[in-house]
Amino acid sequence: MDILTLCLHSKFIIMKRTRTKIIYILLSIFMVYGCKNDDNSENLDDFKAENRKTLGVSAEDLLSDDIYKSLTVELLFSESYRPTETAILNFKNFLNDRLNKPGGINFLERVIPEEAGAPFDNTEIREIEDKNREVYTVGDEISVYVYFANGKSANDTANSVTLGTAYMNTSIVIYEKTLMDIASSSPLINLADLETTALNHEFGHILGLVNIQEDDIHNLHEDTAHNKHCVIENCLMYFESNSLRGIRARFSGTERVAELDPLCIADLRAKGGK
Ligand SMILES: [Zn+2]
Ligand SMILES: [Zn+2]
């Protein structure tokens, strides 16, 4: 093979490679585009999936910054059942103290119309969320939904009332009407303290307290008589900290908003919390 033939041959190979490269590029673009289209159609159905899991499974995702760098808390209420600014601020401080979110914790407040059909059962509470929730977990931002209900819980009896419930991995209902009724029934009871206790306690359940996923490091502090609560009496996660009797007892004392005890805090730290 002489030098010219070699050159021509090389040119041919180069051309051939270029052509193959172009085909590969076109193919890749088609595949990426094709996959993207598939993802989009899946997302239309599944964008709520990350927020439709069982209670406690997102504890680590909320506490650590491994996957999610920021948190958005969506707070929904109707005009007459707006929570106090003090409680929102206390709740924000509670989250900032415990969660590792270098990208920040953002609160979005939105007024929605009052819901008919109170008292609300669990199915209705889920339907209200489905209808009104707008912020879902996406990218490296995890989202939590809190609804301040304009009615009571259907589970209330003459002897016990429900102040709030954490019912999925990122969903909380606070029965704001119940809190307002309790606060207006006694001059000793402060609404903002009541709201703060209910918000922090329910968020504690979302953070897996106590032993909700049966993986806590100090499972000896789970109150076996009152499942998924703490044995320490002045802890935020004590079963009565969020009950009417417990609240009445607490409001006659000096420490009105309960805090987490060291065992509960250690559990949160074991999952990446502060
Ligand atoms: Zn509880
Ligand atoms: Zn505790």
Explain this structure to me?
The protein is globular, with a radius of gyration of 26 Å. The longest helix is centred in the N-terminal third of the chain and has 44 residues, at 3-46. Helix 3 (85-98) packs parallel to helix 6 (191-206). The protein is of the alpha/beta class. The chain has 8 helices and 5 strands, in the order ααβαβαβββαααα. It has a 5-stranded mixed beta sheet, sandwiched between helices. The termini are far apart. The protein has 2 domains: 14-46; 49-270, Collagenase (Catalytic Domain). It binds zinc ion (2 copies). One zinc ion is lined by residues 221, 230, 232, 235, 237, 260-261, 263-264.
Specify the overall morphology: globular
Number of structurally distinct domains: 2
**Got a strand count?**
5
CATH class assignment of the largest domain? Alpha Beta
The arrangement of helices and strands along the chain is HHEHEHEEEHHHH
What CATH calls the topology of the largest domain is: Collagenase (Catalytic Domain)
Major pleated sheet = 5 strands, mixed
CATH architectural designation of the largest domain = 3-Layer(aba) Sandwich
The unreliable regions are: 1-16, 22-41
